[in-house]
Design a protein that fits this description.
By secondary structure, the protein is of the alpha+beta class. It has four domains: 17-158, PH-domain like (Roll), CATH 2.30.29; 182-259, no CATH class; 265-355 and 412-491, no CATH class; 359-410, no CATH class. The protein is 46% helix and 25% strand. The strands form four sheets. The protein has a seven-stranded antiparallel beta sheet, with helices on both faces. Strands 13-12-11-17-16-15-14 form a seven-stranded antiparallel beta sheet. Strands 1-2-3 form a three-stranded antiparallel beta sheet. A hairpin with a 2-residue loop joins strand 19 and strand 20. The longest helix has 32 residues, at 228-259. The radius of gyration is 28 Å and the shape is globular. The chain starts with 16 loop residues before the first helix and ends in a 6-residue tail after the last helix.
Amino acid sequence: MENKFDFSDFSKQSTRGILVYYFKILYKIIRVTWILVVIMLSKKSIGSLQTYFFIVLVAVLIYVLIRAILTFLNFKFKVSEHDFVLHKGIINKSRIAIPFEKIQNINFKQNLVQQLINVVEVEIETAGDKKVEIAITALSREKATALKNLLLSKTNQAMESMDDEQDGVIQQISVLELFKVSISENHFKSLLILLGLGFSLYVQVKDFFESLDLGDQLDVFISDNTDAVQMTVMLTILVVTLSFFIAILSSFFRVFVRHFNLTIAIRNGVLEIKQGLFTKRNNIIRKQKVQQLIVATNPLKKMLGISNVAFKQAISGKQKKGTVLHIVGTKSQQIKDLKKLIFSDSDFTNYQTYTPHFYYKRKMLVRSFIALLIINIIYSLPHLNAGWEWYLCNGILIPGILWMVRLKFEKCFFRLNKEMLWLGKGQVGSEYQYLECFKIQYVTLNQTIFQKRYQVYDMKIQTASGAMDIPCIPEEEAFKLYDYLIYKSQTATQPWM
């Protein structure tokens, strides 16, 4: 289809972008100052400050509007013969030129405001000497698609793509499947996040709550209604049950909002992933950019027949969590299809499985019991006359440690075929990492004085998306693997990103 937009001259965003900038700037101000507003509103003298408060509020809104307009007017971009050019900035002007070969991803994003006014945010991610991310805040869907197609055509000239694969949908997640995913999530992690947020919020508004005398009221309620010990037990059970229920709801809300309407498809020779409720994201993935494919599961996910998949792509500089793209609720056949699309040879049938030396289990046991011993010493010093409860806890902790160490040892392995490396690790859950050998940047072998006695090495494999570790490999296997990986990485002719 012919592109009716001319990007050879500088273009501006949609005028509706002023509204997007307005709410973005306003949100940043509210996020920093909301606690001051709460404290001011809680003061008894707020009545005498209403006029000043109103004046400040109007001044802030006018400032935000002026800044949004200036940001919009000073933002322009174009596509030249060799690179993408962007000019932006109000006082500090920035002029950015990105060669096409360094463009990694072109993604679409829509927050709630952008959805309401029907504009799209285009994110251009790069991998180079310095990480650069460009966000064009407000383009019409038609213009954004035209820009994406133009940049893809420019970058594809020097790249291999998935052209042999037919366009089509690989996976589409329903609400019921999202519910299954949320049920199988790590609720303990959600609970810790909630506790952390709750504690942080309490610290910020502590004075406000103290003015309400809630603690004294609760003490009076407990003393007036029942025995203190009985009430403590009941409150503990209630809090634990309620916290677990909230953690499950939190997991469902997080999964539902982040992965709503998850669709994975092949479009124009690249893998396209759409997902999100309030903030809709449209990400593209090139097979050349994928350094690692990670498949994660746990016992409940296995029962439901689903896994989570992460794509780690080529980046530069400090690794950020946001550079890893996650999809959920993926079935085994869909994982096979993804591996077939991204990798040239992902078949490990009839290839040997290598496991760590027994020293790895011994090291984990020694470290775990040293930590347990330190905890016992710290607890025992101020509680020399304590009862048998703590020793009962040890009776539960020791078998738990033995079980977790055994799981971690048994789930650690690697397999190697002619082109790829497959690593496994985990404890209760399992994680599998897939890597093509030619994308390895370097390999190192490390040996401590304790490992030297057992003739084992730890291996670190560095890629453009981060490091992978293989612990406690027997010496002979370690050097064979090291030589093979170095050979494959140095003799490869394929582009690694």
